[in-house]
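Many introductory courses stop at the sequence. We go one step further.
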Amino acid sequence: MTRYLSLDNLLRIADASVEGDVLVRDIGLLDSALGRPRSSAPTPIRASI
């Protein structure tokens, strides 16, 4: 099962990784970028027996 980062998880990682405040210019764009792997992940192929 593939697990993807949520926006909250990404912001927590960024906060733990840098000193000072994490500044995000466009939160919607960041959220959209996080969703791209989900939308482009290949569909599992089921073998028919």
